[in-house]
């Protein structure tokens, strides 16, 4: 079994990892410490965000809700456009029937999309 020897700086010396050299002044050392503190703070924030399960779940629900709302809006707009194209003429019962059927189909599709999305979010 072989072991690699890892070279370490002598005890009590400070090596700046990015530059591979010792800081030349107290100001350089302070600047390096400030940079490392910022990096550590960013890392802690990222880990805290990943660990916040409730916030991630709320974000997921909000994204799903926005998607459902947008799909419902598009479906409603499409149904209205189709209904406008089949606008009943006075005294034309067939056209009125087609318009009513188109509106019922649009409502059923919107409801089905909402229920399906709700079931998907409940299973997660």
From TrEMBL:
Superkingdom in the source lineage: Bacteria
Compositional bias ranges of the Polar residues kind: 1-16
Residue segments, region Disordered: 1-27, 60-96
Biased composition annotated in UniProt, kind: Basic and acidic residues: 60-73
Spans through the membrane: 100-119
Keyword rRNA-binding: no
Sequence ranges of Low complexity compositional bias: 74-87
Protein name: DUF3618 domain-containing protein
Keywords, ordered alphabetically: Membrane, Transmembrane, Transmembrane helix
InterPro entries: DUF3618
